[in-house]
């Protein structure tokens, strides 16, 4: 019976090594991948906060298209107009603050703390109502083709609430328009919502909620540490006849698993980063806007490094514990052999 037991114990030991490495990887990836702090640092390291005008522009364009807006000027602004306008309106530190708020809202949604995600437009409204707003209007107009006489008439009517047509008026006409622009900006600002929702909560709590499958996967990952524990128990049941056996059969697999985990943690960042990028690109758009998903995908390589840092530390601890068990087992074995030898010499045949 001993040989089958050893075979089963060896199988458990091999499975323990494989499962331990996978558990350390998956557990730390799950813990880091769903924390906004992970991506904030990556955004800062890679200069991705400059993407915020693009994200806001897409959000505003979608919102206006879906909900409409009584201000004609806002209705005719393209996504590119919004993007350049936001970049002109907001200083870098405010763009970074808005990006951080968007990341916090996104991961609060993914982690089930909220059922939707919204971003505040108060910074945009504050700057739009001031002198920066006038510069935005002029910038948008100057990017348009030159106005015809008919378009100038339509533009003048638009300033009083009619249907506006965007075109590039002559400088003399701009001077005449300036007194009317500021009041229109005040009206425009009042019509812009204080916040817009970029992840809808319409399916929250229903079978169509995209987070349900995600939560199942995450729950399964959180249970994976029990697998190595059961395998260690299997080893103990199959081959343990003494403390020395237990420490030997537990020590070597732990040392090997720890060593492999350290190597993966130190050198596996490119592979893990590429896998993470593909997952975000293919699955991320199910949960979050495509523009934000694309930005998060760009951080995958940097984020992978942060995810693997705990793997290195935990792998080292596991390997060190395994080494300690092997050393103690060797010392206990030596002491047992010395005791047997002493007994043999004391009672010769």
Describe the protein in words:
With 349 residues, the chain is mostly helical. The protein has 2 domains: 2-41 and 209-335, no CATH class; 52-199, no CATH class. It contains 16 helices and 2 strands. The chain has helices spanning 2-33, 36-46, 52-67, 72-76, 79-89, 92-110, 122-128, 131-142, 149-159, 171-191, 211-223, 226-239, 243-267, 269-287, 290-298, 300-346; strands at 117-120, 195-199. Strands 1-2 form a two-stranded antiparallel ribbon.
Beta-strand share of residues = under 5%
Number of domains: 2
Distance between the termini: 31 Å
Major sheet = 2 strands, antiparallel
Major beta sheet, strand line-up: 1-2
Mean pLDDT across the residues is 85
Compute the CA-based radius of gyration: 32 Å
Low-confidence stretches: none
Helix proportion: over 70%
Separate helix tally: 16
Secondary-structure content class: mainly alpha
Compact overview of the structure:
This protein has 349 residues and is an all-alpha fold. Helix content is 78%, strand content 3%. It has 16 helices and two strands.
Set down the secondary structure blueprint:
Blueprint: H1 2-33, H2 36-46, H3 52-67, H4 72-76, H5 79-89, H6 92-110, E1 117-120, H7 122-128, H8 131-142, H9 149-159, H10 171-191, E2 195-199, H11 211-223, H12 226-239, H13 243-267, H14 269-287, H15 290-298, H16 300-346
Antiparallel strand pairs: 1-2
Helix pairs in contact: 1-12, 1-13, 1-16, 2-6, 2-16, 3-5, 5-8, 8-10, 12-13, 13-16, 14-15, 14-16
């Amino acid at each position: 019976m001993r040989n089958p037991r050893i075979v089963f114990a060896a199988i458990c030991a091999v499975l323990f090594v494989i499962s331990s490495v996978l558990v350390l990887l998956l557990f730390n990836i799950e813990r880091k991948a769903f924390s906004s702090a992970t991506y904030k640092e990556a955004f800062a390291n890679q200069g991705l906060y400059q993407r915020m005008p693009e994200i806001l522009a897409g959000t505003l364009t979608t919102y206006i298209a879906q909900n409409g807006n009584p201000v004609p000027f806002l209705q005719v602004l393209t996504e590119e107009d919004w993007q350049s306008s936001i970049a002109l309106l907001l200083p870098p530190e405010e763009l970074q603050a808005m990006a951080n708020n968007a990341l916090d809202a996104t991961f609060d949604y993914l982690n089930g703390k909220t059922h939707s995600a919204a971003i505040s437009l108060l910074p945009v409204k504050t700057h739009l109502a001031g002198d920066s707003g006038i510069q935005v209007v002029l910038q948008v107009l100057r990017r348009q083709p030159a106005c015809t006489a008919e378009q100038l008439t339509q533009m003048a009517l638009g300033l009083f609430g009619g249907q506006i047509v965007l075109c590039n008026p002559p400088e003399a006409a701009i001077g005449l328009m300036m007194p009317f622009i500021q009041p229109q900006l005040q009206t425009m600002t009042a019509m812009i919502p204080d916040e817009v929702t970029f992840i809808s909560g319409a399916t929250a709590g229903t079978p169509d909620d995209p987070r349900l499958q995600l939560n199942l996967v995450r729950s399964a990952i959180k249970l994976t540490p029990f697998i190595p524990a059961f395998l260690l128990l299997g080893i103990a049941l199959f081959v343990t006849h003494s403390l020395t056996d237990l420490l030997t059969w537990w020590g070597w697999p732990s040392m090997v698993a720890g060593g492999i985990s350290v190597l993966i943690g130190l050198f596996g960042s490119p592979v893990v980063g590429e896998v993470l990028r593909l997952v975000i690109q293919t699955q991320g758009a199910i949960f979050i806007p495509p523009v934000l998903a694309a930005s998060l995908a760009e951080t995958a390589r940097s984020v992978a490094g942060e995810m693997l840092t705990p793997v290195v530390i935990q792998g080292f601890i596991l390997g060190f514990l395994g080494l300690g068990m092997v050393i103690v087992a060797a010392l206990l074995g030596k002491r047992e052999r010395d005791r047997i030898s002493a007994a043999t010499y004391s009672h010769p045949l």
